[in-house]
# Entry
Amino acid sequence: MLSTHRAMSIVVLSCLLAAGCKSASMGGLSPSGSASASSTVSGAGGAGGAGRAIAVGAGPQKKYMVQEQPAAGSCHFRYERGEPLEDPACTPGAISPAVTQSNLKTTICRKGGYTSGIRPSTYVTGKEKKLNAASYGYTGAMGEAEYDHLISLQLGGDPNDPRNLWVEPEDPGHKASQGVNNLKDPVETKLHTAVCAGKVTLAQAQQAIVTDWTTALTTLGLG
# Structure
């Protein structure tokens, strides 16, 4: 009887240990025992399909610092129908935690504007733009290229996360010395209008533009 009792105790103990291990892993603990923090959120793309996760940046700051950029020559432009697109490996996009679907009326959709109060200074972005131009191997005139937020500020993009900024070259047919004038800008404005009108969700707009800004409006049935 004693040996049977010991055998049962060992079985019970093994089960308890196994359950404890499973409970710890389900709790999202890192090997060090602290809870792991997620730095991404999943956006819904197009007609409701799940898209890739979008990083969450630091959000608006009282004082912005010049951010480190990808190594020189490590990023490469893509082109769709002649229009320049970012390198997803270098510029996957990042959203601001300060803008959510529930606070649109007090952030990006509020009267009087939102973006001017959170935009980094040209002192910061000017330095970043030169570094990012080297990242992408851009050798054109800096005044013709836009240092662009992939997810624009009016769509809740992070203001100064390097994952959300890239040197956007001129559009095809752009005339020299005309300054920045990219076709991506009106796409962003139409998406912003649709979000504030409740035609699409914030997450849908963000996901559509990080996937391909040239097809974002069509994907969401807005073009």
User: Anything to note?
Assistant: The CA atoms of residues 31 and 164 lie 31 Å apart. Helices lie at 2-26, 122-136, 184-196, 202-211, 216-219.
